[in-house]
């Protein structure tokens, strides 16, 4: 019996020892090797240029200033938010909080994610037309095409102006891509305003498809109507008019979406574990704050120079040192500035 007890005790101690060992192959840490730390910080790319630009700015600072590797996970809003809540994504540089209000508030309340800062809050979104559609453009020899067009609901009176090339007799309104949360809100507006009586609800495949469609129409001086938002390179480059809707009312919005879009805080957020995994980067992100003008500055640079988000970020960091150096300790800021030379 004593031998059996001794044998069981020995096996138990061996099991405890094995459970306490650290497997280097699974060690996600840096520094002291704690599994609570990260080697690579993963960011979300939900498919539009401004989030890509802000990702690139943060990546330069995180890599050059703090010494971490970074990576980006692309996907739809729904997919990236789900991955974010589960911890597959560490940082989300542009959460459009009111576009995904229920999911965002649930994630905050359940402690899955943590808001670090408001990136910008001076933004607009909705259905736009080129201003020349309403006012004309004397310099380009364009007469007003729909001078009485004012509201989103008015659009149903203009199917011949915004004619669908694949369905003559009906108009076409470009929605957001199907993977975006806002697409469902535009769907609801179609029903609430009766737009589906005369207009087709066209879903483009991507943000790039919307911009290409707008650019083609604008260069030709032709009518165009579709969903977009600011700050973007497109709203900075083109003279567009946001069609009016009734003033935002939360009850009406929740029932039918038949109001203007609600005020939208676009926030930077991190997964719940991140403050402990990379505390110095977390502190930096609590200071991250821009505005629509600063964002559109970079997006305009991308358009005018055929530059990608990484190139625009480096240009923007050089041009706006007074802005981003305020987010960082002096020694970290100096490392980033040195990397830009």
Question: What characteristics describe this protein?
Answer:
single chain; 341 residues; alpha/beta; D-Maltodextrin-Binding Protein, domain 2; three-stranded antiparallel β-sheet; 15 helices; disordered N terminus
Task: Briefly summarize what is shown.
It contains 15 helices and 10 strands.
Structural class: alpha/beta
Based on Cα principal axes, name the global outline: globular
How many distinct folded domains?
A: 2
The N- and C-terminal alpha carbons lie at a distance of 75 Å
What this model shows, in words?
Helix content is 44%, strand content 16%. It has 15 helices and 10 strands. The chain has helices at 2-20, 49-66, 77-86, 101-109, 131-135, 182-193, 207-220, 233-237, 250-256, 274-277, 279-286, 292-305, 309-319, 321-324, 330-340; strands at residues 40-45, 69-74, 91-96, 113-120, 124-130, 171-174, 199-202, 226-230, 240-242, 266-271. α2 links the parallel β1 and β2 (69-74). The longest helix is centred in the N-terminal third of the chain and has 19 residues, at 2-20.
Secondary structure topology:
Blueprint: H1 2-20, E1 40-45, H2 49-66, E2 69-74, H3 77-86, E3 91-96, H4 101-109, E4 113-120, E5 124-130, H5 131-135, E6 171-174, H6 182-193, E7 199-202, H7 207-220, E8 226-230, H8 233-237, E9 240-242, H9 250-256, E10 266-271, H10 274-277, H11 279-286, H12 292-305, H13 309-319, H14 321-324, H15 330-340
Parallel strand pairs: 1-2, 6-7
Antiparallel strand pairs: 3-10, 4-10, 5-8, 5-9
């Amino acid at each position: 019996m004593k031998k059996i007890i001794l044998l069981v005790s020995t096996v138990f101690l061996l099991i405890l020892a094995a459970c306490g060992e650290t497997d280097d192959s699974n060690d996600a840490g840096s520094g002291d090797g704690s599994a609570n730390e990260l080697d690579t910080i993963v960011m979300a790319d939900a498919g539009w240029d401004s989030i890509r630009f802000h990702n690139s700015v943060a990546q330069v600072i995180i890599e050059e200033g703090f010494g971490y590797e970074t990576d980006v996970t692309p996907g739809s809003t729904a997919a990236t938010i789900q991955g974010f809540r589960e911890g597959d994504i560490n940082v989300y540089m542009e959460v459009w909080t009111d576009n995904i209000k229920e999911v965002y508030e649930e994630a905050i309340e359940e402690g899955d994610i943590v808001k670090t800062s408001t990136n910008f809050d001076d933004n607009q979104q909705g259905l736009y037309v080129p201003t020349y559609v309403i006012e004309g453009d004397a310099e380009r020899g364009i007469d007003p095409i729909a001078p009485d067009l004012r509201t989103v609901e008015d659009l149903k009176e203009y199917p011949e102006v915004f004619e669908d090339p694949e369905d003559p007799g009906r108009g076409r309104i470009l929605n957001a891509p199907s993977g975006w949360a806002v697409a469902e809100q535009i769907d609801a507006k179609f029903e609430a305003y009766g737009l589906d009586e005369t207009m087709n609800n066209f879903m483009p495949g991507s943000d790039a498809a919307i911009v290409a469609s707008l650019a083609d129409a604008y260069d030709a001086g032709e009518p165009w109507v579709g969903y977009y938002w600011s700050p973007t390179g497109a709203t900075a480059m083109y003279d567009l008019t946001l069609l009016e809707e009734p003033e935002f009312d939360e009850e009406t919005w929740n029932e039918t979406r038949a109001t203007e879009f609600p005020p939208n805080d676009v926030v930077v957020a991190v997964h719940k574990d991140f403050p402990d995994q990379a505390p110095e980067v977390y502190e930096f992100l609590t200071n991250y704050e821009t505005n629509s003008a600063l964002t559109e500055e970079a997006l305009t640079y991308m358009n005018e120079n055929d530059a990608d988000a990484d190139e625009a970020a480096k240009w923007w960091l050089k041009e706006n040192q007074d802005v981003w150096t305020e987010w960082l300790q002096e020694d970290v800021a100096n490392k980033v500035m040195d990397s830009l030379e």
